[in-house]
Amino acid sequence: MTSAKITRARPDVRVLAWPRWFDNPYLPSLVDGLNREGLRSGSAPMLLAATMRLREGDWLHVHWPGETHTHAARWRYELGARTVHAQLRHLKRRGVRIAWTAHNLLPHDDPHPDLGHRARRDLLGMADHVFVHFEGARAELTREFGYTGPSTVVHHPSYVDAYPAPPPQQTAREALGLPERGFVALAFGRIRPYKGLDTLVAAFRRCAGEDDRLVIAGSPLGPVHPSVKSAADDPRIILRARKIPDAQVPTYFAAADVAAITHRAFFTSGSALLSLSMGCPIVGPPVNHLADLAGDHRLFPADLSTDGLTEALRRARDETPSVDRTAIRGWAREHGTWQTATDTIAAVLCDRSGNESGSSN
């Protein structure tokens, strides 16, 4: 299907992504790509804004709905979830269609998992289509929520072209003040409890030599775990608890031998695609999205116990000389492109003849 065919068939289809989250290039790239496909694509910071802009036949494309209503206070969480549910039902009554990209099964660090599960189940009950980033995600949606409706696999696009090319490792280490020699592990992204950084710190300390480094870089969301904060007293562990500017992102990954993804619960990992896009292999559990990305030194598998991570870090350190970072970066580029992703999504939202699509892919 070409963009021209979509435009001629249904030039007035509007697709609004909600909630608006531009902390990384994913959503802006998707919105821009759908516009190039001939759809009127945009984003809405609030669901109420979407209800005012969408009409019959348009699409609301939901991404991270739990982030809009999770709250430590149960009554506020429940009120927020009910409000979202009511607004989605209002859209459905008006003939607006709903798609969900299932980045996560449940919200991260959910203080009330039962409410989160109910909210996801309610969303799936109204969804006209679900997009997932790996084949096994369909079975997980069925197992967890009983969902058997229309779904399409869209590989998470790489970030190869979203950032400058990573510099040589020696240059990157000089820029960050890291030893030229030694093994460097990187934990990159928002610092949150579910990421298991306390276990990673303990595992690294077990196996690290004098010139080895663990770099934890990213802005905290909530208080930093005491064991992570106190780890900064160890000169081998570097905590940079702040947002890393986009221009510096390639430097951090170029300096590292591996990126550690030690999330206690995850479904899809954009961080994994970012790491592979920089040519940096991953240490993490071979489940869900990471299992789909494994092969050829892209993933050093680990269970998430301290012992398991220690063993995986040691193996990664031993096998670092065999890693072909250029090949990893090339694989990431081929695994998922923004053009392919937006082509696939546009084909679902408007089929080749311009009719609404509801079939499973």
From TrEMBL:
GO terms for biological process: lipopolysaccharide biosynthetic process. It comes from the Bacteria. One of its GO terms (molecular function) is glycosyltransferase activity. Keywords: Transferase. Pfam families: Glyco_trans_1_4 (PF13692). PANTHER family: GLYCOSYLTRANSFERASE WBBK-RELATED. This is Glycosyl transferase.
